[in-house]
Design a protein that fits this description.
This protein is α/β, with parallel strands linked by helices. It has two domains: 176 residues, no CATH class; 105 residues, Endonuclease, Chain A. The protein has 15 helices and 13 strands. The strands form four sheets. A four-stranded mixed sheet has the order 10-11-12-13. A three-stranded antiparallel sheet has the order 1-3-2. A three-stranded mixed sheet has the order 4-9-8. The longest helix has 17 residues. The chain is globular.
Length: 363
């Protein structure tokens, strides 16, 4: 996911419930939502309106997804929602919360269950559930699966992801019901645009916090039958072959895709140099074209703003360190190109920067 401007603050979710005196907290929570003090995320599930309004889009999407897990009955998350809960980095915050249903009549976008209220209306609408029928493997038709479901076959492959999958917004005590990661990948990546698909697969190649090591070919083999069409298989195989564990952020992944689309010579990733800073230091650059003396650096905002990456330093200290590091690389005879998200959003800006620095087109 794109780096947030800060580390997420803890989120408190409040559920309506009966009280010992026969009353129900839902009445009081609903009044607080109408006053703009709370946001109703789903029926009977609320959070602080100010916290919701202050959160960037990817946090709001995550909060709404975690809140949906507290619904009864608990949903089975799929597609982007499943990837999010498996700890996979996503390029964009999902607009909806993807879940499975065994009832044909429920397929589609759920009715609005949440409302931001007057105090947080500028944050946009609360993401809604989008219900999908179970994923369909090759060799089984949709009518056959529906008939099996009618006979009582639930048809929902799922695992339980721990309640602390999102540490700053805890899920239900029993954990999240989520489709297995290989199935979620095969079902989702071919539907994505290439930058988003590669960003997710680079993340999986690195290994996520919730997965013991990267997902490999053997993990995917059992689910291969869910690539139902030749088009989906081509898209999957192309993105999977292009995935690289050395791409350490979504911004680096998107940069790689754009370089490839423009026909630029492919770089080496995460290359180390010894430079004359503080008596001799080893530094690592995101991209290196060794035959052309060019290094590239994608600059997200996280290292200047996230406390865990600042490690006690002030943001201005990090800026100075980056400047000294870049000067040292230039003294090695390297040309240094730096870019940010704004450069990636302009189709040719990064290409022109790299060509001007001496990066050639593929031969």
């Amino acid at each position: 996911m794109r780096s947030a401007s800060r580390s997420p603050l803890p989120v408190q979710l409040t559920r309506s419930r009966p009280t010992d005196d026969g009353d129900h907290t839902g009445t009081h929570l609903g009044r607080a939502a109408r006053r703009g003090e709370l946001v109703r995320l789903h029926r009977g599930i609320y959070t602080d309106a100010e916290r919701w309004s202050d959160a960037p889009p990817w946090e709001r999407s995550t909060i709404a997804t975690v809140a949906a897990a507290h619904r009864s009955p608990a949903p089975v998350f799929c597609r982007e929602a499943a990837l999010l809960l498996h700890g996979v980095s996503l390029l964009d915050a999902p607009n909806h919360i993807a879940v499975r249903t065994t009832h044909v009549g429920d397929v589609g976008l759920d009715r609005p269950g949440g409302t931001a209220g007057p105090g947080a209306a500028d944050a946009g609408p609360v993401p809604r559930l989008r219900r999908h029928e179970p994923a369909l493997p090759v060799g089984r038709s949709r009518p056959e699966l529906r008939e099996a479901l009618a006979r009582g076959d639930r048809g929902l492959d799922q695992i339980i992801v721990p309640a602390d999958a999102v540490p700053w917004c805890p899920g239900p005590d029993e954990g999240f019901r989520v489709e297995p990661l290989p199935l979620a990948l095969l079902d989702t990546a071919p539907r994505m645009l290439r930058p988003a698909a590669v960003a997710a697969l680079d993340s999986v190649a690195r290994g996520t916090r919730l997965v013991d090591g990267p997902v490999g070919e053997e993990d995917l083999l059992a689910w291969d039958g869910f690539l139902r069409t030749k088009k989906a298989r081509r898209r999957w195989e192309s993105c999977w072959a292009f995935a690289d564990a050395d791409a350490e952020s979504v911004g680096e992944s998107v940069s790689r895709v754009l370089m490839d689309q423009w026909g630029l010579a492919p770089p080496q990733l995460q290359v180390r140099f010894v430079v004359d800073v503080d008596g001799g230091s080893r530094v690592r650059v995101d991209f290196h074209w060794p035959e052309h003396g060019v290094v590239g650096e994608f600059d997200g905002l996280a290292k200047y703003q996230k406390p865990e990456l600042l490690a006690g330093r002030r943001p201005e200290d990090v800026v100075v360190e980056e400047k000294l590091r870049e000067d040292a690389l230039r003294r090695l005879g390297l040309r240094v190109v730096r870019w940010v998200w704004a450069d990636l959003r302009h189709p040719t800006r990064l290409r022109d920067m790299l060509l001007a620095a001496g990066v050639p087109l593929r031969g």
